[in-house]
Amino acid sequence: MSQESEVPRENFPGGDVVPGEEELRVSIDKRAYAEILSHAKEEADVEICGVLIGKLKEDKHGRWLHLQHTIRGEGAKQQGAQVTFTHEAWNHINKVWDREFPQLGIVGWYHTHPGFDIFLSDMDKFIHKSYFDNPHQVAYVYDPHQGTEGFFRRVKDDIVLMDRFWHGGKPRRIVAPENRIKPAASAGAAGSTGAPPASGDIASSLAALSNAVKQLEYETRERHAGNMGNMIFYAVIGLLFFAFLGFQMYFGRSRGQLVPFMIDPIPCSRIPK
């Protein structure tokens, strides 16, 4: 269902943000975001899907997308590392949509990739082009195992990963998998150099802390302009540096030797019935 004919004017929740070239600013409410994560947590080992409910809006800088609710794709077909919408799923979605959100539209969809990171498979692209092909409709992908996430949208003839989105009014950076650095060397590589292999707990903790550093860097730069913002940013990074170092020294001593220190900058229509 296209919302191109009626676009209400409303201030963007992220503030006075000037979009980049070809950028669609996307803001998702905290409740809608929590609904997706809750759905993903309930079935963390299989792909799940649903639709995003909201409205295309406009401010002085142009159009932006407001994601306000979700509807689960109950009855979707889950097969291995793949999920597809079925007639049963669409019947459920349409029923809930008509009953609870008649003034809003389906502005995209979401699904998970448990352990496979964020991307759109050929089947995902087929679904997007078949049911969500308006330029303002987006696809949200979440990996509940790695904690990675991202929004995709159609730009001209391609479907691309977006650079950022806003959650509850705050900016969040999206980093493509190919632009990340792995948090730790493999066990085989560690053995060949004589260094002890990192445990899963340490590796995952370091990855989580690194994600926090990357997200903090982005949010600090967004919120603070000028020298004061830079001073706060570097002060926080310094504190995190010593926290990381203490973490490594503690676990290194517990093994009888110091684990090499490493920081990794990973960031965190109407549908046919």
Distance between the termini: 13 Å
Which secondary-structure class do the elements indicate?
Answer: alpha/beta
Number of domains: 2
Walk across the major sheet and give the strand order: 9-8-7-6-2-3-1-10-11
Rg, nearest Å: 21 Å
CATH superfamily of the largest domain: Cytidine Deaminase, domain 2
Helical segment tally?
A: 6
CATH topology of the largest domain: Cytidine Deaminase, domain 2
In round numbers, the mean pLDDT is 78
The largest sheet, given as strand count, sense and whether it forms a barrel, is: 9 strands, mixed
User: Which CATH C-level class of the largest domain is it?
Assistant: Alpha Beta
Low-confidence stretches: 185-201, 254-269
For this entry, what is the oligomeric state of its chains? Answer: single chain
Q: What series of H and E elements makes up the topology?
A: EHEEEEHEHEEEEEHHH
As a percent range, the share of strand residues is: 15-25%
What is this entry, summarized?
The protein folds into two domains: 25-177, 3-Layer(aba) Sandwich (Cytidine Deaminase, domain 2), CATH 3.40.140; 187-254.
How is the secondary structure organized here?
Elements: E1 25-28, H1 30-42, E2 49-59, E3 62-72, E4 77-78, E5 83-84, H2 87-100, E6 105-112, H3 122-131, E7 138-143, E8 148-155, E9 158-161, E10 164-167, E11 170-173, H4 187-193, H5 200-223, H6 226-254
Parallel strand pairs: 1-3, 1-10, 6-7
Antiparallel strand pairs: 2-3, 2-6, 4-5, 7-8, 8-9, 10-11
